[in-house]
Amino acid sequence: MRKTGVILMNLGSPDSTSVKDVKKYLDEFLMDERVIDKPWLLRFLLVRGIINPFRAPKSAEAYKAIWWDEGSPLIVLSKQLQEALQQKTTLPVELSMRYGTPTPEAAYTALLNRMPDVEEVILVPLYPHYAMSSFETAVEHMKAAHKNNNYAFRLKVVPPFYKHPAYINALAESMRPYLQEDFDQLLFSYHGIPERHILKADPTKKHCMQVENCCFKASDSHPTCYRHQVTITSELVAKKLGLKKEQWQQSYQSRLGRDPWLLPNTQVRLPQLPKEQVKKLVVVCPSFVSDCLETLEEIELRGKEDFMAHGGEQYTYIPCMNTHALWVDALLQLIEETMDKDR
Ligand SMILES: C=CC1=C(C)c2cc3[nH]c(cc4nc(cc5[nH]c(cc1n2)c(C)c5CCC(=O)O)C(CCC(=O)O)=C4C)c(C)c3C=C
Ligand SMILES: [Fe+2]
Ligand SMILES: [Fe+2]
């Protein structure tokens, strides 16, 4: 038996809700060339001169609205997920964040302390869908730390699991209790990305956003196409839940900057929906497996306010899977399948 360890990796949060800590976090996040993909100097001027000075105080207020006594919900829930998974496996499970702490080095060190002769590490980016600003940057960051430290163990990565039956089942079952009461529409709200990132990630350079209905036509671009992958997740979950096409729709949230991002925009759709006779709305955010600022503040708090202020009557936010038992089982299955590859 090969000696195997596991590292779960999520995005990360500021250390506290102080403007100073939020600035530090945003600086690391937005200076990532896979998030703001502009030449370094332009990115530096944009982030330091324009985005961060305005965004950090606003984001700090937003974090204050959802912060828990134990810390950032994203970090607390990721640790709970680590613990829940650890209960189900003898493999050592550690946690890392892409930005902030715990760093990849801290996670590798913790793993080596528990298993000094570890031979392979299974990295689980906690993102169901591929995007260069989430999945890819997480993987590259862990690979860089692995290389810089000359670790002898092998690093294997769990691929995007957006259509994996165990993930789809866990997501659908975590949503089912919230769909028992009468509702007009279910909105799948995914984290948005710039359209440019979709074009960049298309290895064929001629399919995504260039062919009509590209997301529904077979292509070699799909393993790295965020829009295709989120669309498939929505379709599979809706099917599993027995929903008709007229009962659900999809949108993209958390837009930053002026470049064109994927459409429709959740923030634009929420106040429009009541005028389209959608008075009872249920919202789910499947690009996040753990609740965080973008779900708890933007969707559960602000989204509700906006929808209700524009004539909505009932707004139900479905929490992320967090530590749902089926999700923990699915995670273990994903890890075991990756361990078995190339054996
Ligand atoms: C789910 C995957 C994510 C993708 C894809 C993603 C892309 C992306 N994000 C920004 C800018 C921001 N995102 C912020 C918060 C945030 N983003 C994700 C996930 C993805 N981002 C999560 C899980 C979180 C929450 C972090 C937490 O502490 O709870 C923020 C910071 C907060 C804020 O000011 O809103 C920014 C900024 C860009 C530009 C981008 C793609 C290019
Ligand atoms: Fe984000
Ligand atoms: Fe595509």
From TrEMBL:
SUPFAM superfamilies: Chelatase (SSF53800)
EC numbers: 4.98.1.1
Main localization, broad class: cytoplasm
Annotated Fe(2+) binding sites: H191, E294
GO BP term, pick one: heme biosynthetic process
Transmembrane segments: none
Known catalytic reactions: heme b + 2 H(+) = protoporphyrin IX + Fe(2+); Fe-coproporphyrin III + 2 H(+) = coproporphyrin III + Fe(2+)
Pathway involvement of the protein, from the record: Porphyrin-containing compound metabolism; protoheme biosynthesis; protoheme from protoporphyrin-IX: step 1/1
Function as written in the Swiss-Prot or TrEMBL entry: Catalyzes the ferrous insertion into protoporphyrin IX.
Family statement: Belongs to the ferrochelatase family.
Descriptive protein name: Ferrochelatase
Organism in which the protein naturally occurs: Niabella soli DSM 19437
Origin organism lineage: Bacteria, Pseudomonadati, Bacteroidota, Chitinophagia, Chitinophagales
